[in-house]
Design a protein that fits this description.
Blueprint (H helix, E strand, L loop, with lengths): L2 E7 L7 H11 L4 E7 L5 H10 L4 E4 L13 E2 L1 H6 L4 E5 L2 E5 L2 H11 L8 E5 L5 H10 L4 E6 L2 H13 L4 E5 L12 E4 L22 E4 L8 H8 L3 E3 L1 H17 L5 H9 L3
Parallel strand pairs: 1-2, 1-3, 4-6, 7-8, 7-10, 8-9, 10-11, 11-12
Antiparallel strand pairs: 3-5, 5-6
Helix pairs in contact: 1-9, 4-5, 4-8, 8-9
C-alpha cells in the first residue's frame, strides 16, 4: 500500500524536504512519495481538508503555518505544547497528531559528537521562529544560562520570558552590545538569518578559542562567514544542515517507526559532497 507525505507552506519551491525524504524511501525500498504542497496564508483549513481527502499519511509544516496549524490538531506531543508550534504531523485514520522536531533536530549534532552541554553558558543570536525550540532544547539538557541577543530588545525579552518560565535562567541584550564578550560563552548559536546572503558574521568572534562551540542554523550556504571566522579560531563547528537533517530523521522515525537512513539523507541534502 503506497503512502504519501508532504511539506506544506508558502513559499515552498525551495524546500529540501522532498529530496531528503525521497532518498530515504529509495534507500529502504519504501513504497512512498513525498510532495511539496503550497498552501498560502489564510487557506490552511481548506488545505488540510484536501490533504485528509487524499489520505495523506503525514506532513511537515513550514512558514507561515507552524503556529496556526496547532488549531487543527487532534493530539499534541509534549515538545509541541512547550514550544507552541508544530512542524511535523502524522495522520492516523483522520486523527492528526502534531510534533515539533526542531528541538530534537537542534540537539542531534551535539549527541552525534558526544558533547555534553550540561552547565554550559550559551549566547543565542536571534529571537525569531527557531529560538523557542532551541531554548527548549537547552533547557532539556540543563545548560547553565542563556543570553539572548537580538536587534530589537522587545523580541529578545519575550523569548527570555519563555526561557525563564520553563526553568532556564535567561537574559536579553541588544546584538550590538555583545562587543568582545563572545569569549565569555561556551556555546554561541546564530539563529538569525544573517549569513543566508553571505553577509559577514553578525558578531565579532576574534576572542573565542578552541573550547568554544559555534553553531549556525543557516544551512545555505554551508560555510557561512560566521562559521569561517569560528574555524579560524579552532572552535568546534556545527553546521545548519546538521539541524535540518536531525529534524528530517526525527520526522521520518515518527512516520515510519524505523530508524532513518542518515547517510543517504545527508548525501541527498549535500549533493554527494
Amino acid at each position: 500500500m503506497s503512502k504519501t507525505f508532504a511539506v506544506i507552506g508558502d513559499p515552498i519551491d525551495h524546500s529540501l524536504s522532498p529530496n531528503i525524504h525521497s532518498a530515504a524511501f529509495k534507500e529502504l525500498n519504501l513504497d512512498c512519495s513525498y510532495i511539496a504542497y503550497r498552501i498560502p496564508k489564510g487557506e490552511l483549513e481548506e488545505g488540510i481538508e484536501a490533504l485528509k481527502k487524499i489520505k495523506i499519511n503525514g506532513f511537515n509544516v513550514t512558514i507561515p503555518h507552524k503556529i496556526e496549524m496547532m488549531k487543527y490538531l487532534d493530539k499534541l506531543d509534549e515538545s509541541c505544547s512547550i514550544i507552541g508550534a508544530v512542524n511535523t504531523v502524522s495522520n492516523d485514520d483522520g486523527i492528526l497528531k502534531g510534533y515539533n522536531t526542531d528541538m530534537d533536530g537542534f540537539l542531534e549534532p551535539f549527541k552525534k559528537r558526544s558533547i555534553s552541554i550540561k552547565n554550559l553558558k550559551v549566547l543565542l543570536l536571534g529571537a525569531g521562529g527557531a529560538a523557542r525550540a532551541i531554548i527548549a532544547g537547552f533547557a532539556k539538557e540543563h545548560v547553565q544560562s542563556i543570553t539572548v541577543a537580538n536587534r530589537t530588545i522587545e523580541n529578545a525579552k519575550k523569548v527570555v520570558e519563555f526561557s525563564n518560565k520553563i526553568g532556564l535562567n535567561a537574559n536579553a541584550i541588544k546584538i550590538n552590545e555583545i562587543g568582545d564578550s563572545a569569549k565569555d560563552y561556551d556555546i554561541i548559536v546564530n539563529a538569525t538569518s544573517v549569513g543566508l546572503k553571505n553577509e559577514s558574521s553578525p558578531i565579532s568572534l576574534d576572542d573565542i578559542n578552541s573550547k568554544t562551540i559555534v553553531y549556525d542554523i543557516v544551512y545555505m550556504p554551508i560555510n557561512t562567514d560566521f562559521l569561517k571566522k569560528a574555524k579560524e579560531k579552532g572552535a568546534t563547528i556545527i553546521y545548519g544542515y546538521e539541524m535540518l537533517l536531525g529534524q528530517a530523521t526525527r520526522a521520518f522515525e515518527i512516520w515510519h517507526g524505523i530508524e532513518a537512513p542518515y547517510n543517504a539523507m545527508k548525501k541527498a541534502l549535500l549533493g554527494g559532497t
